[in-house]
Every structure is written in structure tokens, then in C-alpha cells.
Amino acid sequence: MEPGEGMAIDTLIKPLVSDAAFRVAEAARVLTPALLIDRDRVQHNIATTLHLLGGDTNRWRPHAKTAKLGYIMRMFADAGVRQFKCATGLELSVACQAGAHDVLVAYPLIGANAARVRQIAEQHRSVAISVLVENESQVAQWRGTSVSVFVDVNPGMNRTGVPEDHTDAILRLCKSITSSGLRFRGLHYYDGHLSKYGIAERCTQAHLGYERLMHIVDTLATLGIEVPEVIMAGTPAFPCSLSFSRFLNAPFVHRMSPERSFIAIPPRWLSCRRNMCICPLR
Q: What is the pTM of this model?
């Protein structure tokens, strides 16, 4: 059995029996409010996620929204994970400085935010920076840049993206990307809406969506459009993506984006003793 295949969610996340391990000695001396970061636990969680991925660092594209600090991103890089997702220009800049090789800005940006990404891409030309698009006007704003482009597919989250049943619109976008002289990197498919289901129903619904996604990939292939990479599955759908057998020998790089294996921390340390770091919130 492949890692994650047939795996129940309770094998991934165990309930907390006691908070004793999280208590801090001399807590009365800590300025509050504050966040505590246990480096050993973060490293353990990174290692556990990689174990579920069969040790293949290439299959994980964590979202930087819950890492934020270059310190944490460098922990990923040290573990061999050098491809990320992010949502803002600041997160993109930090990831590039922390040793990322490949970063997707996983939100269809326009205006000043798109201009900032273009600027960062020029500053970090050795990093493969990519963006999302959901319509042809967004494609036009990236012409003449070094960024590559993913098409954002909406699997029912209804936040961004082209609806998954609009295959013709997805095809037009792919053609628009290549005809604009840009590199088509693949499809982005965020199924975060499935978190409302229990694990069994969640995976049933996720697998139905993955079949539709594979149909899109197959349709594009018949029209001569290769899909190099497919990105999916935040934390809720992670076990479902792991257990979908057609991804094991897919004709594309299959990457997942569980991000809750580490903790969000603000960008200024108060102090670090041993492996416990204390960070003020104000």
C-alpha cells in the first residue's frame, strides 16, 4: 500500500490528551500576548508529512501563509522541500530569500499586486515564479515577463477559478497563455470546501472531483496541450489526494499543499532558548 492509501484521518491527526508538553517553564516572565514555536515539533511535523508522501519532497508544495518567516521556510528547504505556494508579494519575497526554487502565487492578482510580483520576479530570476489566471485579461498582464502561468480551476470552492465543467474555457485560457509567449505550468485545483464533510464522504466527493480533473487533463492532451503539473489538496483533502490511485502514475507532476503541519508566526523574535522560541504579538 502506498503511503496514505486507505488511510483514515485519525492516523494523521491524533487528539490532544494532555497539554503538559506545551507548558512553558517560567511562563510568568513571558510578555504576553505571545506565540511559542517548538522547533522540534515543527521539524517532526515536516518529517511526518514527508513520510506520508513516501519521502518524496517533490510532491509537497506547502502554502507559505502559515509559515511566514524565512526561519520556518528555511526549515523546509533544509528538509529538501523547495517549492511553495503563497498569496502575497511579501510571502513571495520571503520565500525567494529563504531558498525556495519554485514559488506559485496562488491567487489571481491584478493591478498593483501583480506589478509587485513582476518586480520580485525580476529581482529573483533564478527562482521559478508562477501565477494563477482565471480569465484572458489576467493572461495579458503577464506578457513580456519571466513568470509562468497556472490555470486556476474551481472544483466547487467558488472563490476563484474557472468552473471545472467549463472545459472549453479552460482550453481557451491554456491556448491564450502559450500564444502570449508565456509558459503554461499546469492546473491549480483547490478543494478546500470539502472540509465540511466527514473523512469518508470527503474522500468520496474528492475522488469524484479528481475524476473530473483527470478528464480535463485527458481532453487537453487530445488537443496537444500537455499539463506539466497539477496542484491540489490543502490540509482537509490531503488524505483523499494521497489515496486517489490515478495520481500515482499520472502524466504530470502531482503536488499537494497541506499547510497545517507548522504554525504561523509573526516576523519578529523575542528570544529563543534551546528549541523553544517566544515571539510577541505587539
A: 0.84
